[in-house]
Specification:
It contains 13 helices and 19 strands. With 461 residues, it is α/β, with parallel strands linked by helices. It folds into 2 domains: 111 residues, Urease, subunit C, domain 1 (Roll), CATH 2.30.40.10; 319 residues, Metal-dependent hydrolases (TIM Barrel, Alpha-Beta Barrel). The strands form 3 sheets. Strands 1, 2, 3, 4, 5, 16, 17, 18 and 19 form a 9-stranded mixed beta sheet that branches. It has an 8-stranded parallel beta sheet with strand order 6-9-10-11-12-13-14-15. It binds N-(aminocarbonyl)-beta-alanine (URP) and zinc ion (3 copies). The site of one zinc ion (ZN) has 3 residues, from loops. One of its GO terms (molecular function) is dihydropyrimidinase activity.
């Protein structure tokens, strides 16, 4: 009997704080040893010469099979997690959104039915709370104990949004029980006001989506969300910061010593409001909330990532086929909000982050994996390359050049917002708990092998 089921040898191992060359010895899905010349003690060997070995990506913001905007996001837990795996992501945390009239436990049951036996990588679930009542109050501490340790509130979207009172109560109860609250911060009254004016003057095209919700609308809501967190002594995680107006609110609160954290997404670092000008109805590809912003925000967001103002990069993967987007052909408010991105996050962040000199290679690991694991109660089992941790690894060829096209991707949708962008560096293999599940752009793992992960409380970073 050999010491290891598998040794990945000769790679350059990169963690959130170190780079070193060596071998990784894996047994029963866990990393057992980091060292040199481990191959002879292994049943099987994978040669990673010339490649980086990164902790598998963790995407803490996905919407798979989600009922939204009168339709469903087009990737389910099977197709979405396969695309994620091909792109080097080994864990997701998806949002289980409480339908009106349902309890949190009923919501969990609904989402576990979608995910269990379908997902191909490991997954956790955040609970999006849409209503507060005695039952919700009673369930919050219990679901945290069951491993659903993070919550979300939406400040917009009919049927999902909560008022400040409910928001405050979620902050108060969840934080008292070692849960973390995240927030989609935009002001619904501002959006309604501008939308009405735009539609009344016949401005119905996709580009008016962005005009209906200016950056201040996100900044104001972020400020309000942070104020509520301050008053309840709760930590807060602001999802998908798109602009200086929101990120600067997080910066200010952190400088004052409050436990406020934030995320951005590749689309806000690489795409801009100019995309809404694409011909015909193509601007609808980029209709998401918050919307793409002026390019001038890019530098601010890269700096915020570098300075630790924002700690993570997630995708907000929420794909819709163009035929679904066409529900809003005559009215931008009827375009389902969201865009794909689950397969490209790691490659985009390496190419446009590390290769272009915007972030260090260690920062890349922090933003895409280690910090995410810490914040969402997955660390150190996930998010690192450490003895005792899961052997979730992305093998990455820093020299591989790829021109992005929908045709090379596996997301269940008929476009990518990143079409024609050039990449230098691409994932070539993905291991999940020691199993080679993706290689050279194809999913090759066993079907439906993903496991639900119970998460512990947040580490504030
Ligand atoms: O437009 C978006 N972002 N759709 C997904 C739901 C959300 O707001 O995160
Ligand atoms: Zn959102
Ligand atoms: Zn989202
Ligand atoms: Zn393929």
């Amino acid at each position: 009997m050999k010491d290891f089921d598998l040794v990945i040898r000769n790679g350059t191992i990169v963690t959130s704080s170190d780079i070193f060359s060596g071998d990784i010895g894996i047994k029963r899905g866990e990393i057992k040893e980091l060292g040199r010349n481990l191959s002879e003690r292994a049943e099987d060997v994978y040669d990673a010469k010339g490649k980086y070995i990164f902790p598998g990506g963790i995407d803490a913001h996905t919407h798979l099979d989600m009922p939204f905007g009168g339709t469903f996001s087009s990737d389910d837990f099977n197709t979405g997690t396969k695309a994620a795996a091909i792109g080097g992501t080994t864990t997701i945390v998806d949002f289980a959104v409480q339908p009106q009239g349902k309890t949190l436990n009923e919501t969990i049951e609904m989402w576990r039915e979608k995910a269990d036996g379908n997902a191909c990588i490991d997954y956790g679930l955040h609970l999006a709370i849409t209503q507060m009542n005695d039952k919700t109050r009673e369930e919050i501490p219990q679901v945290i104990r069951d491993g659903y340790s993070s919550f979300k509130v939406f400040m917009i979207y009919e049927g999902m949004m909560v008022d400040d009172l409910t928001f405050m109560e979620v902050l108060d109860i969840a934080s008292e029980n070692n849960g973390l609250i995240s927030v989609h911060a935009e002001n619904p009254f501002v959006i309604d006001y501008f939308t009405k004016k735009l539609l009344e003057s016949g401005k119905t095209a996709p580009k008016y989506h962005e005009i209906s919700r200016p950056a201040y609308c996100e900044g104001e809501a972020t400020n309000r969300a942070i104020s509520l967190a301050k008053m309840t002594n709760a930590p807060l995680y602001v999802v998908h910061c798109s602009c200086e107006e929101s990120a600067s609110e997080i910066k200010k609160a952190r400088e004052e010593g409050f436990p406020i954290m934030g995320e951005t997404c590749p689309q806000y670092l690489l795409l801009s409001r100019d995309n809404y000008e694409e011909e015909g109805f193509n601007g609808a590809k980029y209709v998401m909330s918050p919307p793409l912003r002026d390019k001038k925000n890019w530098n601010y967001l890269w700096k915020a990532l570098n300075d630790g103002v924002l700690q993570t990069v997630a995708t907000d993967h929420c794909p819709f086929f163009m035929k679904q987007k066409r529900m809003g052909l005559d009215d931008f408010t009827k375009i389902p909000n969201g865009a794909p991105g689950i397969e490209l996050r790691m490659a985009l962040m390496y190419s446009y982050g590390v290769d272009k000199g915007n972030i260090s290679i260690e920062k890349f690991v922090q933003l895409t994996s280690t910090n995410v694991a810490k914040i969402f109660g997955l660390y150190p089992k996930k998010g690192s390359i450490v003895v005792g941790g899961d052997a979730d690894l992305m093998i990455f060829d820093p020299e591989k050049k790829v021109k992005i096209s929908k045709d090379i991707l596996h997301e269940n949708v008929d476009y990518t917002p990143y079409e024609e962008l050039e990449l230098k560096g691409y994932p070539v293999a993905t291991f999940s708990r020691g199993e080679l599940i993706a290689e050279d752009g194809e999913y090759i793992g066993s079907e439906n092998r993903g496991e639900f992960i119970k998460r512990s409380g947040p580490k504030i970073i």
